[in-house]
Each structure stands twice: as structure tokens, then as C-alpha cells.
Amino acid sequence: MHKKNIKTQTKKTLIDAVYQNVPVSRSIVEKTVSAFIGQLAQALKNGERVELRGLGVFVTKERKLKSRYDFTLEKVISCEHISKYISFIPSSVLKNTEDKAVGDEQKTENDNHKHCSLEV
Q: pTM to 2 decimals?
């Protein structure tokens, strides 16, 4: 999938969007969004699973051990290469929303025989 013309949602634009929709001061919105992101990050650092209904699940996973062969051709497993990464599993609500968007795009471009697929 080509990633041309994809908008990026930053923390600032997220704060602006929330501020437009909630009748509270901008400083409260900033503190709330920052606290939310901080809690999310801390939970993931602690290895916790974070489930946000309607959005998805964030999970911390470990990469598999990497092994290599030294000059004597003995297999060596290096623990230094163990790393963690964050995985996001979208909710069914989010997947259905994306499927509808893709379906609408396919319908409008169907005359040109172009099909769009969305990778999750």
C-alpha cells in the first residue's frame, strides 16, 4: 500500500480537536491528553495490556531470541538482542469503519477498475 498524502495526527492536533468538542479550557484538555498518553505509556512499560473499547488493544511483545554462529560454528544465543515492541490490535468497530471507507472508495473508483485495499 502506498502511503501518499496520509495526514499525520499529532498531539497538538489531537488537543485542538478535543478542545473544539469539549466545553472546557484548553489547559485542562492539554493536561488530560498528556495524562492519558502518560498512563498509556506507563502501562505498556509495565507490560500491561491496554484495551480501549471501540479503538483496540495495545500489547507489549518480545521479539524472539536471535542466534548466531561464532567462528567455531557453535550456535550462540545472544540475550543482548532481546527487544520489546508495542503491538496494536484494532477493534472490530475500527476494522468495520475502515472496511466501509475502503468499500466506498472502491465503489467510486470501480469505473476505472481501480481497487483500494487497506492493510491493518
A: 0.62
